[in-house]
Amino acid sequence: MALGVSRPIGSGQAKDWLDAHIPDQTGRTVLITGANGGLGAATARHLAAAGAHVVLACRRADQAAALAAEIGPAAQTLHLDLADLDSVKSAAAACGPVDTVVALAGVCHVPYGLTADGFELHTGINHLGHFALVGQLLDRITDRVVVVTSRAHEFVGRPGFGKLAPADPGWRTRRYSAFDGYCQAKLANLLFANELQRRLAAAGSTLKAVSAQPGWADTDAGMHSGRKWGDLSWRASCRAIGQPADVAALSITYAAAADDVVGGGYYGPDRLFGMRGLPAPAKAGRAATDQALMTANWVAAEHHTGVRYDI
């Protein structure tokens, strides 16, 4: 029976849904970025419970180690700092074959700052770091790439909001806002997933690239704007509307493990305008399938990261 907006999904219902929809993952290895907390940790727990071996690719080694100890032998850690392309290169070199990569780590609504390579933080961590990681792992991925995005991508280009500018990853020619930075990085994520799928299909590859959005998650993401009242307002909204991390992670887990996921698919919660509910196919904003923008985003990412995809 469908769950109404007034009846939030509880952890028990989430477990029942996972048992019914996620096949046995025994023998599969899944690398998850940002798995030290929030949605990443919840996704790792879900997949490990289904039998997968999970690689927790994280910057915070202590938190990753704590989660690995909680999960047990089915987990291992891998140091990864997406804000530093040298760290991304080292992590990729240290990683063995994996069935699936879940590109989940990211920052949300943070003040202006630059990565080690001179990229604005949202752009560098959420998008370019993942682009570089997947590109260097591509010959060791056997099944799929899941890129985690957000419905926030739909704000890009609307009146009052900025437009994506792939050639300016440092935001040096545009006026910066934390919300614009986040939204544009999430659009770049979707463009990356869609263009990757197009190129894989054109090359005759059986690999799949898909994207997923968790809806409104009640986590600490978005609580780093540096504005006290803004952060408090965000926290109140999360408590009122958001789903707990183990529920919000369902659409990501589904995209990573379900048999009926299709290449180029986009998945998210099915209720409250994609903010809450159970995983289902979703409809992305029009810009996410703009071929000219997909190409520009890809070409710029290759230029900025120095990573070329062999497809």
What can you see in these coordinates?
- It is a single chain.
- The protein has 311 residues and is of the alpha/beta class.
- Helix content is 41%, strand content 15%.
- It has 10 helices and 8 strands.
- An 8-stranded mixed sheet has the order 3-2-1-4-5-6-7-8, with helices on both faces.
- Strand 5 (141-148), helix 6 and strand 6 (208-212) form a beta-alpha-beta unit.
- Helix 2 (38-49) crosses helix 9.
- The chain is globular.
- It starts with 10 loop residues before the first helix and ends in a 6-residue tail after the last helix.
- 52% of the residues are buried.
Question: TL;DR?
Answer:
By secondary structure, this protein is α/β, with parallel strands linked by helices. The protein has helices at 11-21, 38-49, 61-71, 85-94, 121-137, 178-202, 228-241, 245-248, 250-257, 291-305, and strands spanning 29-33, 53-58, 75-79, 98-103, 141-148, 208-212, 266-271, 276-281.
Keywords:
41% helix; globular; disordered N terminus; 8-stranded mixed β-sheet; 311 residues; 8 strands; Rossmann fold; 15% strand; alpha/beta
